[in-house]
Structure formats: structure tokens, C-alpha cells
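Ticket opened by: R.M.
Priority: normal
Category: complex prediction / small molecule

The reporter submitted a protein together with KG4 and asked that the result be attached to this ticket for the collaborator who will pick it up next week. Submitted input follows.
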Amino acid sequence: MIVLGIETSCDETSVAILKKEKQIEILHHQIASQIEQHRPFGGVVPELATRQHLLRLDPMIQQAEKESGVSIRQLDGIAVTRGPGLSSSLLVGLSYAKGLAFSYGKKWIGINHLEGHIYSPFLEQKTLPTYPHLALIVSGGHTLLIHAREAFVYEKIGSTLDDAAGEAFDKVAKMLALPYPGGPEIEKEARNGNAEAIAFPRSMIGSGDYHFSFSGLKTSVRTFLEKKAVKTKEEKADVCASFQQAVIDVLIRKTCDAAKDLGVNTVTMSGGVSCNQTLRQQMKTAVEKQGATFLSASPVLSTDNAAMITAVALNRFQAGEVESWDTDVNPNLRLA
Ligand code: KG4
Ligand code: ZN
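Result attached by the on-call engineer:
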């Protein structure tokens, strides 16, 4: 089975062609980042994102056909992200996918972006997910703990009550006059800092549930910066390292507690924040110490991408699913 997938839920335009036989093979994968367009505004501007998707998508599909040697006629189906995300961005991808499917007489399917993130650590191993497993999704828009019981059966067991982890990284970076997106910048600064220099709060770490809160931590950094002018490079690095460690400690504690309580043997992590090497190393050590397997994908498959969307579609098409022509985008689409 060969499927073309499109992802335009936020600020990355991405196209992939995947083939599934015994293993999953990525025949083509391209991600056009819009960071340069949004950076001057300090965040994603929906109108700008929509225009960029419109400009880029058609040439990218043509390039995908050319470089993969797979023509649209040879496809078994077309997949596209239908939510959650920015409505106008989603509409560009979904309208394109539907139009392409209709004109070539192909089946199509709308995919939940979060389900894509759940597939990405397995896609790195060229396989479909194994069940049950616990998935931590940490991105700019989401901080979620999902119990994946079996194929297509998910239970949300934890989420953030306010800011997403990535959002906290971006907002703290702004306070420190670091460029957008803030996550990678904070990680860079933190390498030269002392993670124990400032005792920032580990909000809700002992709450007895699997929910998160990062807004108090963000305010605590703001208050610290207001009280104590951070002048030197070393001081800035200490703030970054201490903030980063506060986020990491909570993510690890909640994930490990959930894995233990559910009795799952596989824990995965995906989303932009999962690119953070300190988080990755510490999470891997903590999960493995509990006797479970830890999986995460390379950065290109961890952030928003079409390969993960296409992988879900392969599984859903093979299970016999086909989308109806009147299915629309859903910016608030839920997974569970
Ligand atoms: O998954 P993603 O590309 O997009 C969505 O939000 O769906 O995640 C982007 C988020 C941003 O908030 C960015 O600052 C954060 O992921 N991020 C990081 C790192 N790389 C990206 N946060 C911490 N450390 C990183 N290395
Ligand atoms: Zn995402």
C-alpha cells in the first residue's frame, strides 16, 4: 500500500509518501518550515501561515511525485491532517487533499494530528505502534499523557491545566529576549548553566494525578527576573538551566508514575519539546530504571511532519476506513 500524506495544521508545510509492506518505508518526506516568516512577530501568525501553505503545497506535491518516482495515479490513498490546529491552515491541506483525491478517483482520510505524534516514535523503528503503551506528547500546543490501549483506542489520562510545556519555553525565552521559537534557544543557553542555581517550583508534582501546570513556573521566572536583574551570560544560563530542569522534573515524574500505575512496558515521547536532549536523556534513564522500554523519534519526526500522519493513514486504510466527502476540518478535534 502506498499513501501520500499532507500536514498543514500549524506552521510547517509537510508532504510524505509512505509504503507499507512488512515494514514501513518513507519513500519521500519534506518539511518546509516557516520559522523565518514568523520569527519577527515572536510567534505563529495564522494569516501568514495560511499564505505560506498555499504558496508551498502544490510545488511540494509535484516535487514529491518527481523525487519518489510515484505518481498520484499509483497511490492507494491520500491522507491529510484534519485537526487539531489552526483552522485556516488546516483548510489549505484538507481542501487540497480532497480535491486531489476527487480528481484522481482516490480514497482519502482525515487524520488526527495527535494520533500522528503517537505514531512517530514507532515510525522511527519502521513499524506501527505496539500496544498497550503510554505516550507523552509535549509540543507548543499540547502536554498530554495518553494511554494507547490498542489500535485506535486511546484514553487521555493527563493534560496541562494551563500552558503547554513548549508554550512555557517560548514565553520564558521571550522574557530573556531570546528569539522564537524559544525551546531550542533555552536548551542552548542551559548547556552552560547550573540547573540547581534557582529553585523554581515543580508545580503539581505531588498532586496525585497525571495533570500538569506550567503557568505558575512561568510567573515564578518572571518574578525572579523582576527582582534580580540578570546581567551576565552566566546568570542567564542559570535561569535557563533551572527553568528547564523544573519542566523536566515534572514531565518525568508524572510519566513514570503513570507508566507504573498502568503497568505498561513501553513509554514514548513526541512533539517539539521532546527534541530537548536533556529531557530525552533523563526521561530515558528514568523509564528504563523502571524496567520499561523508552522510544522517541529523531527531531525531524518529533516535530510536526507529514510522515507521521501518513503512517496513521496506512493503518486506518488497512483497517478498512475511508472518509466521506463531507468531512471537514476540526480545529478542536479530540483524540480521547
Ligand atoms: O511539535 P511542534 O513542532 O509544534 C507544535 O506545537 O505542534 O513543537 C513546537 C514547540 C515550541 O514551543 C518549541 O519551543 C518547542 O516545541 N521546542 C523545544 C525544543 N525544540 C522545540 N522545547 C524545548 N527544547 C527544545 N530543544
Ligand atoms: Zn504537533
